[in-house]
Design a protein that fits this description.
The chain has 326 residues and is α/β, with parallel strands linked by helices. It folds into two domains: 73 residues, DNA polymerase, thumb domain (Beta Polymerase, domain 3); 238 residues, TIM Barrel. 36% of the residues lie in helices and 14% in strands. It contains twelve helices and ten strands. The strands form two sheets. It has a seven-stranded parallel beta sheet with strand order 4-5-6-7-8-9-10. Strands 1-2-3 form a three-stranded antiparallel beta sheet. Helix 10 packs across helix 11.
């Protein structure tokens, strides 16, 4: 199992470490080599292979010869995030725009899945094909959310949110006086994705600088096997997220998985919180959360690196102090 799942680069490093100990690893196990003699010493389980080399068991998602051996040698191998640790979902749509379920139906579905809170983030007005919300309709929806929260009490919390378009000229799609009333704002690019790298990067950084924006949604815009990521300086964007105390979304939809694993790892290194969201457009869409968790694991993320492993009161404290992990 360990040998054939690789990756090749990880196994090259592993075999090199084995040679330094007078050992040999192949598909049949770990052997001690003494001249012409080879004695089998480990291999009945993956854990035995690593133990024979005085290493902790490295999770399959991390076997890429990136950081995992450095972490293992330093005793800092992350305890990777698990699906059961996700407490809330902060990106979803309703029939108010292009969703297929009502506000109440989405909330009920989230409660049945054991979540403690959600953010309703229908599209803003620029996304006309999805009947995006203008300020009047958005404030009406938020009034409905206030009323729903009053009925739910402490059992569950619904955040007043919006998926806010970053327009082609960098201006945000709704005014600040409206955004100031939101609990959660995810900013995203839907139009002008073929603009030059500098312009795309400037648009994202400008959104992060806005005090009312909480996170960037599907930050590179990719659709797997359908649309490449737009050209963006992600290092600069992550630096801005760290500077402004903002979060980055890992969109769990299997057509997106955006951020990718390397960007997740880079965010972790900068202390930028990741929020794993489903971007659900119907109740079944809430079930794709598991794909986002798997992607986060490939990026080396522990529960502490993922903002929505926190309860709503804990997440609110994080948002109130600017979003950055201390």
């Amino acid at each position: 199992m360990q040998y054939f799942t690789g990756s090749k680069e990880h196994n090259v490093e592993l075999r090199g470490r084995a040679r330094q100990r007078g050992l040999k690893i192949n598909e049949y196990g770990v052997f001690r080599v003494d001249g012409e003699t080879q004695d089998y010493i480990a291999g009945r389980a993956e854990e035995d292979v690593y133990q024979a080399l005085a290493l902790p068991t490295i999770p399959p998602e991390l076997r890429e010869a990136r950081q995992e051996f450095h972490w293992a040698d330093a005793g800092q191998l992350p305890d990777l995030v698990e699906l059961a640790q996700i407490r809330g979902d902060l990106h979803m749509h309703t029939t108010a725009t292009d969703g297929l379920a009502t506000l109440e139906e989405m909330v009920d579905a989230a409660r049945r899945r054991g979540l403690g809170y959600v953010a309703i983030t229908d599209h803003s007005r620029r996304v006309t094909m999805a009947h995006g919300l203008d300020p009047e309709r958005l404030l009406q929806q938020w009034a409905e959310i206030d009323a729903l929260n009053a009925r739910l009490g402490r059992a569950f919390h619904v955040l007043k949110g919006i998926e806010l378009d970053i327009l082609e000229n960098g201006v945000l799609d709704l005014p600040d006086d409206v955004l100031a009333q939101a609990d959660w704002v995810v900013a995203s690019i839907h139009y002008g994705q073929r603009q030059p790298r500098a312009k795309i990067t400037q648009r994202l950084i400008g959104a992060l600088a806005n005090p009312h924006v909480s996170a960037i949604a599907h930050p590179t815009g990719r659709l797997l096997n359908r649309r490449a990521a737009y050209d963006v300086d992600m290092d600069a964007v992550l630096a801005a997220a760290a500077r402004y105390g903002k979060m980055m979304e890992l969109n769990a939809h299997p057509a997106r998985l955006d951020l990718n694993d390397m960007h997740c790892m880079a965010a972790r290194q900068r202390g930028v919180p990741i929020v794993i969201n489903t971007d659900a457009h119907d109740t079944d869409g809430l079930d794709v959360m598991r794909f986002g968790v798997l992607q986060a694991r490939r990026g080396g993320l522990a529960a502490a690196d993922v903002a929505n492993t926190r309860s709503w009161p804990e997440l609110k404290k994080l948002l109130d102090r600017g979003g950055a992990f201390s």
